[in-house]
Amino acid sequence: MPELPEVETIANDIRPGLVGSTLESVRVLRADVLRGVTARRFERALRGRRVAAVGRRAKHVVIELDDEHRVVIQPRMTGSLHVSAANGASDRYVVIAADLSTGRRLVFRDVRRLGAVHLLTPAAWRRYTERLGPEPLERGFTAPRLLAALAGRGGRGGRLAVKKALMDQRRIAGVGNIYANEALWSAGLDPSRPAGTITSAEARRLLRALVAVLRRSIRGRGTTVRDYRTGTGEAGTFQSRLKVYGRAGRPCRRCGRRLVLTHAVDARATYFCPGCQR
Ligand SMILES: [Zn+2]
Fold first, then answer.
1. Which residues participate in catalysis according to the annotation?
2. How far is the CA of 262 from the centre of ligand 1 (A)?
3. CATH code for residues 4-130
4. How far is the CA of 162 from the centre of ligand 1 (A)?
5. Are residues 65 and 18 in contact, defined by beta-carbon separation less than 8 angstroms?
6. Residue 53 contacts residue 61 (beta carbons within 8 Å)
7. Which of these CATH numbers, 3.90.1150.10, 1.10.8.50, 1.25.40.10, 3.90.550.10, describes 143-272?
8. Which end of the chain is least crowded, N or C, by CB within 10 Å?
9. How many Cβ atoms sit within 10 Å of the Cβ of residue 91?
10. pTM higher than 0.85 for the full model?
11. Where in the chain is the domain with CATH 1.10.8.50?
């Protein structure tokens, strides 16, 4: 599932081909990816609108239109977005296609159709974004803010495993299973530690580790384990640089102990080093 670095890569890739162009015709080929809007209303609302901005929030691509409505796309497992030549080959996995005034075409393709597409008014967008936690790469996201985020609203999340807290989108935006595993290894923290026991010094280490791995992955155009493709249709490259994810049984790059895979922390695959994460 694409996390912050993968969705950031997709948004960066499609932005130059989209911003400033007008959506001339929009076709929804598979309406089951739409949330809270019919295909007819979605097509009508987008037709003739100019794209004002393309960004990312958490794990979602956000296309802002000139009337301040936003199209929010969650690629999830098998969704991909690209801008390509309008006469290029189409295929049966295209779920939404929009012809642009530049002669190019924006395509959302989703093999298993697990993705989701929302059309939000400015007020609906405010509610949507308020439910998500702070962005870890934003300036001003400091170690005290990370500690507060891990504790959750009202500070009641202290007993939750730190890995689970990191992946909770209401606490921190954009971090999923791969980067939670990587950041906790890099910071030398046990993924099952209750979030409320993390000290200020550990929070500083965790923040540095998290920011570093997210930035490095963006530079590597994200991690392709299976389906993720960039906005230009290629695989990412960061999978070859993962330190723990997918490396169970292989030696820890810091202390040499064999890395362990467990599903006991949060039912997801948790990889950790029993030597230097205790
Ligand atoms: Zn180790």
1. 2-3, 59, 268
2. 16
3. 3.20.190.10
4. 18
5. no
6. no
7. 1.10.8.50
8. C
9. 9
10. yes
11. 143-272
